[in-house]
């Protein structure tokens, strides 16, 4: 059955999907831009972490609004552009702004940039995010390597791989027991020690958002093994792994989740942005060194 790009409204949720040919067209459009080199690594900048793109040299910016068929960023803290450039000798592309389910985007739209970056040549996807802390041993400002995730929307049917499967994107069924690359986690641990930056490790849970969690929801998430919670990352990680990319995930803990009815105030986006700003330098320092430490062999075909 041919897979067509289409836009329908179903259950009030946009159902835009993209064919392989459409994704390829966008990748070719970007590669044809003067100064753009095929990237080896894609970096998704989480809320308030767009400063990561400042670490690139020989930068070329492409605004999302100027890319055919691309969604646009609607959330404060997401600038809405791709930044191409180099870290050390490695060509990379940063997404300065990601797309979220709660913006009303379909899973295909949320994960489109991952497939575009894959067709442009990336071998590794680094996904960063801002997240709420659920673990009593962690604190606001900590950086956490994502060792696994709980993708609540996918468990309820909103998996980005639902629908006809084009094998050029990846296989119909795909296991996720090694979703977050153990090899990259080991590289990150070593770099963290060398830089004297404490790196936690834990499980990221995704709530579709945009509401932050209720007290009971936070308690439920802790009970099922989550350390932090956010509203992103899982869709992009699943689509990247399905496409054969190595995935590295990192959360910045921007707020403590409220676990007691007597505590307040509720979590809010302004705090998320301000912690992103205050921890931005360490995040940049870590990624600059981490990207340089990834072995060449990991970035080969
Ligand atoms: O996951 P990122 O995009 O980093 O952002 C997190 O922070 C925002 C809430 O403040 C939500 O978008 C949540 O997902
Ligand atoms: N769902 C969710 N996303 C976040 N992003 C940053 N903090 C939070 C949080 O507490 N909950």
Task: Give structural notes.
The structure is a single chain. The protein is globular. By secondary structure, it is α/β, with parallel strands linked by helices. It contains seven helices and eleven strands. A hairpin with a 2-residue loop joins strand 1 and strand 2 (13-14). It has one domain: Nucleoside phosphorylase domain (Rossmann fold). The strands form two sheets. Strands 7-10-9-8-11 form a five-stranded mixed β-barrel. A two-stranded antiparallel sheet has the order 1-2.
Describe the SSE topology.
Layout: E1 9-10, E2 13-14, H1 20-31, E3 41-44, E4 57-63, E5 81-87, E6 90-96, H2 107-120, E7 124-133, E8 143-151, H3 152-155, H4 182-195, E9 199-206, H5 215-223, E10 228-230, H6 234-242, E11 246-256, H7 269-293
Parallel strand pairs: 3-6, 3-7, 7-11, 8-9, 9-10
Antiparallel strand pairs: 1-2, 4-5, 5-6, 7-10, 8-11
The protein binds 1-O-phosphono-alpha-D-ribofuranose and guanine.
Briefly characterize the structure.
By secondary structure, this protein is α/β, with parallel strands linked by helices.
Helix content: 25-40%
Most strands sheet = 5 strands, mixed, barrel
Second CATH tier, the architecture: 3-Layer(aba) Sandwich
Order of helices and strands: EEHEEEEHEEHHEHEHEH
CATH fold field value: Rossmann fold
Residue ranges: pLDDT <50 for 5 or more in a row? 1-13
Structural class: alpha/beta
Number of extended strands: 11
CATH class: Alpha Beta
EC number: 2.4.2.1
InterPro entries: Nucleoside_phosphorylase_d, Nucleoside_phosphorylase_sf, Pur_Nuc_Pase_Ino/Guo-sp, Purine_phosphorylase
Family: Belongs to the PNP/MTAP phosphorylase family.
Function: The purine nucleoside phosphorylases catalyze the phosphorolytic breakdown of the N-glycosidic bond in the beta-(deoxy)ribonucleoside molecules, with the formation of the corresponding free purine bases and pentose-1-phosphate.
